[in-house]
Amino acid sequence: MKYAILIFSLLFCACKDVEPLPFDPHDARQIEGMWRSGQHPTWTYWFDSVSDRQSGYLVQSIFDLNTQLVEQHYAYKIRNDSVIEMLNLINEKPRIVTAYFETDSTAILTETFNGLILKTKIKRF
Description:
about 10% helix; 8 strands; single chain
């Protein structure tokens, strides 16, 4: 029940119109919106921020052959200019992901996982 209240409050706050941000390759607040990876299987990311663009809700999904295989839900918080700290709403494992924007419609997400550096290039829908 507490997750339903959290999700509803995040979605309700996110419904306001917010001015677009000027382009800055290191400003992670630009992450808001729908994104997808170009690799197979296709990963999709829906970042929905609250009014201050410093926190929000992420739905991350994996699709293969037009079928959704996985859907994960995260709360996220922007730290500094380029770091997104995500907390899985199911198992509460935090992740820190750095976002670098090549253009206003392409970004590279970098995450360190068990000593490995994982990079994912995403494109805006």
